[in-house]
Specification:
The structure is a single chain. This protein has 91 residues and is of the alpha+beta class. It has one domain (6-85): Arc Repressor Mutant, subunit A. 45% of the residues lie in helices and 26% in strands. The protein is built from three helices and five strands. α1 packs across α2 (52-62). The chain is globular. The chain has helices spanning 37-49, 52-62, 67-83, and strands at 6-9, 13-18, 21-26, 32-35, 87-90. It has a three-stranded antiparallel beta sheet. A two-stranded antiparallel ribbon has the order 1-5. The longest helix is centred in the last third of the chain and has 17 residues, at 67-83.
Length: 91
């Protein structure tokens, strides 16, 4: 993951927040993807800004996590979301 990248949420991805967690449905494949509370916050910030750097900075300020761990966790999450076609990463 490159923090200079931007994220675009697929127009085929719809989501619903339920009890602090988020369920994302890909309308094309009809597959579901669940996010825990932290993943939900990342998704919310992604919707707001689309900038990985902005999401990273806000998460670092809001959560008790090391910079290295956050970058690793965000990288894994966005890699999964991109493979499922729910987001697109661009430079």
């Amino acid at each position: 993951m490159n923090l200079a990248q931007t994220v675009t949420i697929s127009p085929d991805a719809i989501h619903q927040e339920v009890s602090g967690e988020t369920v994302i449905l890909d309308l094309k494949s009809e597959n579901y993807f669940g996010l825990d509370e932290v993943g939900t916050r990342i998704w919310q910030l992604t919707e707001e800004t689309g900038s990985l750097q902005d999401v990273y900075d806000r998460m670092l300020a809001e959560y008790d996590v090391t910079a290295e761990q956050l970058e690793e966790d965000m990288g894994e999450l966005f890699s999964k979301l991109a493979k499922m076609g729910l987001v697109e990463l661009s430079d």
